[in-house]
Amino acid sequence: MASMMLSDCASSTATTAARILPFTGRPRTQLGLIKFHKFLDRVNFRLSIPKLPNFTVQSIQACTADTTGITSNETSVKVIDGKAVAKKIREEITAEVSQMRDAIGVVPGLAVILVGDRKDSATYVRNKKKACEDVGIASYEVRLPEESTEQEVLKFISDFNDDPLVHGILVQLPLPSHMNEQNILNAVSIEKDVDGFHPLNIGRLAMRGRDPMFVPCTPKGCIELLHRYGIGIKGKRAVVIGRSNIVGMPAALLLQREDATVSIVHSRTINPEEITRQADIIISAVGQPNMVRGSWIKPGAVIIDVGINPVEDATSPRGYRLVGDVCYEEACKVASAITPVPGGVGPMTIAMLLSNTLTSAKRAHNFG
Amino acid sequence: MASMMLSDCASSTATTAARILPFTGRPRTQLGLIKFHKFLDRVNFRLSIPKLPNFTVQSIQACTADTTGITSNETSVKVIDGKAVAKKIREEITAEVSQMRDAIGVVPGLAVILVGDRKDSATYVRNKKKACEDVGIASYEVRLPEESTEQEVLKFISDFNDDPLVHGILVQLPLPSHMNEQNILNAVSIEKDVDGFHPLNIGRLAMRGRDPMFVPCTPKGCIELLHRYGIGIKGKRAVVIGRSNIVGMPAALLLQREDATVSIVHSRTINPEEITRQADIIISAVGQPNMVRGSWIKPGAVIIDVGINPVEDATSPRGYRLVGDVCYEEACKVASAITPVPGGVGPMTIAMLLSNTLTSAKRAHNFG
């Protein structure tokens, strides 16, 4: 099943536009190389789609490895292996969970609330449950029918808030359209908001001298990849492409906390290529297949590509393949390091969710 | 009295390093043109000074209007008259307050808590009280002795939180060193946090689709000046110099909300001059006299100078004068518009505090 290949961003919301369009079995539009301005603001738009089972495959010109305007990098590019890093992190979490259980008899617990029957949401929830099992975190799942009331969902959240066995609560988005998503998310206790999307968390992330309870999973995964590959951030020029609440904005705040000089490029930016070309570190999270070309990249830059965009591919048995926001072939000629798609940032998101759940349990029990 | 000339930033904290050093009657150091890196992180540092009565006058080379490296602006510079704009805003507030009183019998109220006997803090509180009186806002002042306990302060905050006559609460900073400032500020009800410094407010300011209850006064004043002078923000390149919680960071978030492409320059930025020179709009809030030279400015850029730095001036009867972060004489040759110091951003801070208090009262009484 196609959607098995995709991982959603943090609890719920897809990172990129392309991941979140409905799957119609045929390309929605012949987009060609899609215009920057039109697409960059779509990042969050899954939230407004009520009930769509899967995603759309985009039709797009292949990234042709055009070298016009590219100053070639002299050394070979390092591929940042998110899959391997995520595996390592899951092993570390497994060890810590086991140590905690042995020492104080506490098992970290993650509760997931799923409302309705979206297939992609069901897949995301199943993946999270499986990931929890693998590291020894207990998972608690509540499935409610599409026609449930807001009050019913709030009641479950309230129960999980009070339940000492639960250290993290996720509400799988999108919710049915008759529910007020903001009300529901605000009801999750700040101590259990392992997604880190609560405004209080974001405020603390933005402020010097304050610390968030949790850092949102996908941006946390991006920074973790830089750390694990020994890539310095302090004093570096960083450009974040996309300003969504779930990836772009918190990624920019995290880079700033680590003393990078950060610029945010978005749908209203004039000449995004020029600004991006100044960056030592690029984090792209817009859901625009192959938007960032080789000519956008400074030689030796490090690229973290958050986009996971299915595009048409007649040579694939599935009829599509996944590409990032960055034209990988061109970027490899210029960058010093790059995350592939798939296998880059994607696997990090669930690893960070497990990490946040463990952190929450340790904090609740004053352990470690 | 020297400190009468200064206005503090929002409730409490001075915007700039130079404003907040102790007044010793002689220059602390012969700084010359002070190094960027050393000073840029001092912005918040008044918070850590326990009891210093006034401020230090810095010794600094005058900004010499050196034209080396400056591409001169062909048209004449527009001086952004913050004093006049603030006066206009106070008149508008006066009219609204009067209208509200006549219509529903409600007078907006601002409570200020002052602990200890710092002369500068007393002056700031007096200025705020006077500004309230002038527009018809009721002010409630609590003065507590230096040796008061945190619990006593918290009790007053709690009473004001519950008092329907009070729509805004300010705790004048810095607090005595035996008090936990974060605990005290967090106790102010989010509905009455007219400073807008609560992390929940900052989080909402950062997030798309969310709105803060209040916008911090000084950054709000900067954006208001741009609006009142008809200076477009959308699509512009903006550079904010300084990343303090009270000015730089929220100013960057505000510019981003208005669709500027924002970069934040700070103490760890390498080559801040190069980045600043790309900006159509510069907001500087670092407390470093004359740091931004003409050569840092793109011809035609708009400059909002938040710094208010007293520097030695033997020709002045007081022995000092106030300058901004930007070398005004040089900037006037390059920029299209600039705020002077004094008379630029300074008067806007209290005007925005009054505006936030009125907004709070209107919201509490569902008026207008």
From TrEMBL, chains A, B:
Entry GO MF terms: methenyltetrahydrofolate cyclohydrolase activity; methylenetetrahydrofolate dehydrogenase (NADP+) activity
Organism superkingdom: Eukaryota
Limits of the Tetrahydrofolate dehydrogenase/cyclohydrolase NAD(P)-binding domain: 216-364
Pfam families noted in UniProt: THF_DHG_CYH, THF_DHG_CYH_C
Pathway note: One-carbon metabolism; tetrahydrofolate interconversion
Keyword entries, A-Z: Hydrolase, Multifunctional enzyme, NADP, One-carbon metabolism, Oxidoreductase, Photorespiration
Sequence ranges assigned to domain Tetrahydrofolate dehydrogenase/cyclohydrolase catalytic in this UniProt record: 80-195
GO cellular component, as recorded: cytosol
Gene3D superfamilies linked: Leucine Dehydrogenase, chain A, domain 1, NAD(P)-binding Rossmann-like Domain
InterPro entries on file: Aminoacid_DH-like_N_sf (IPR046346), NAD(P)-bd_dom_sf (IPR036291), THF_DH/CycHdrlase (IPR000672), THF_DH/CycHdrlase_cat_dom (IPR020630), THF_DH/CycHdrlase_CS (IPR020867), THF_DH/CycHdrlase_NAD-bd_dom (IPR020631)
Catalytic activity entry: (6R)-5,10-methenyltetrahydrofolate + H2O = (6R)-10-formyltetrahydrofolate + H(+); (6R)-5,10-methylene-5,6,7,8-tetrahydrofolate + NADP(+) = (6R)-5,10-methenyltetrahydrofolate + NADPH
GO biological process, one term: tetrahydrofolate interconversion
KW Cell membrane (keyword) present: no
Family named by the database record: Belongs to the tetrahydrofolate dehydrogenase/cyclohydrolase family.
Quaternary structure and interacting proteins, as annotated: Homodimer.
Function text: Catalyzes the oxidation of 5,10-methylenetetrahydrofolate to 5,10-methenyltetrahydrofolate and then the hydrolysis of 5,10-methenyltetrahydrofolate to 10-formyltetrahydrofolate.
Identification of the protein by name: Tetrahydrofolate dehydrogenase/cyclohydrolase, NAD(P)-binding domain
